[in-house]
C-alpha cells in the first residue's frame, strides 16, 4: 500500500490515448535493473494513492497489457512519447481493433 507521503512525487501529466514509456524497476535475485514498457495508455482507474493506469503494447505480434500503480516506488519514471486525441476515458474498444484501425489520432 502506498501512503500519501509517497504519492506526493511529481507525476508527469498523461491521459488515455497517450503513448507512454514506463521505466519500471525489476529485482532479479540480488540485482536490480530498469525495464522499459512502452505502449498506449488505455485507461486510468481510481484516484489518490491507489490510482492505476493500463498500458497496452504490441510485442512480436502479441498484444500485452500491464496495469501499473501510478504512485508505486518501483516506477523510476514515466515519459510521454506522444499525445493522442481521443474522446473516451477508457479505450477498451482498441482491444477488438486490428492493424490501422487500432491507431489513435495524434493530438495537435
Give structural notes.
The protein has a single domain, classed as SH3 type barrels. The chain starts with a helix and ends in a 26-residue tail after the last strand. It has 108 residues and is mainly beta. It is 4% helix and 45% strand. The radius of gyration is 14 Å and the shape is globular.
TL;DR of this structure?
The chain is mainly β and 108 residues long. It has one helix at 4-7; strands spanning 19-28, 31-45, 52-59, 62-69, 75-82. The protein is 4% helix and 45% strand.
Strand content: over 45%
Helical content class: under 10%
The total of helices stands at 1
* Structure classification: mainly beta
Named CATH architecture: Roll
* β-strand number: 5
Main traits of this protein?
108 residues, mainly beta, SH3 type barrels, five-stranded antiparallel β-sheet, 1 helix, 45% strand
Describe the secondary structure blueprint for this structure.
Elements: H1 4-7, E1 19-28, E2 31-45, E3 52-59, E4 62-69, E5 75-82
Antiparallel strand pairs: 1-2, 1-5, 2-3, 3-4
Amino acid at each position: 500500500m502506498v501512503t500519501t507521503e509517497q504519492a506526493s512525487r511529481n507525476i508527469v501529466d498523461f491521459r488515455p490515448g497517450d503513448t507512454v514509456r514506463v521505466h519500471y524497476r525489476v529485482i532479479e535475485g540480488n540485482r536490480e535493473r530498469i525495464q522499459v514498457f512502452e505502449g498506449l495508455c488505455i485507461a486510468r482507474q481510481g484516484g489518490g494513492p491507489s490510482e492505476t493506469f493500463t498500458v497496452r503494447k504490441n510485442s512480436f505480434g502479441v498484444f500485452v497489457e500491464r496495469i501499473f500503480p501510478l504512485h508505486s516506488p518501483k516506477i523510476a519514471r514515466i515519459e510521454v512519447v506522444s499525445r493522442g486525441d481521443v474522446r473516451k476515458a477508457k479505450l477498451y474498444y482498441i482491444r477488438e481493433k486490428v492493424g490501422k484501425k487500432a491507431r489513435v489520432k495524434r493530438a495537435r
